[in-house]
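Exercise 7.
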Amino acid sequence: MRNQEYEELPFLSVGGKIVSTQKEEAVPHGTFLVSNRIILQTEGPCLIEDNSVSWHKKMKGARQGLGRTGERLAAETLMGRGYRILERNFRCSYGEIDLVAEDEYDLIFIEVKTRRGTAYGRPEEAVTQRKQRKLLEIASYYLDLHACSDRSWRIDVVAVQLSARGAFEEIRIYQHAVQG
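Solution. The predicted structure, written as C-alpha cells, is:
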C-alpha cells in the first residue's frame, strides 16, 4: 500500500536490507521510499570471513551501488525537468558516460557523481581535468558513431549529495560543465 507522503521507486539493495527509519517498518522487496530523503540501511549482515569474499570487493560493490542509485536519482530529476534519457551507461573504448539525454535544444552528455557525506569533498569536485578530457573524447566518439556531429551538444555534471548516513540532501545540475 502506498503512503501518500512517499514516492515509490525501484531500489538497489544495500547490505540486503532496506528499511524506513521514519516508521521503523520493513519496506517491500523491490522498492525504496523517498520523501525528503533516501532511506537506505547500509549495515547488513556481516560477511563470512573465509577469505573467499574480500573487503575490497564488498566496498567496490557498495560504491557501484551508490553510483547506480545516484544515476537513477539524477535521471528521475532530469526527466522531471523535461530531459529525455536516450541512453544509460554508454560505453566505448574511450570510457563510459553515465547518461545521454536531450532537451528541446541540445544533445546532452551527463556525468553523475554521487557522494555520501563531505569528508572527501563535494561530488562535482571528482570531475577532474583528466575526467573532463575523457568525457570530451567519449562525446566526440558518440557524435561520430551516431552521425550527428553537426547537432548542438553539451556536457553537464549532476552532483547527487547524500548525508554520511545515506539520507538524500540535494541534487545540483551544472550545465555546460565541461568545455571543449
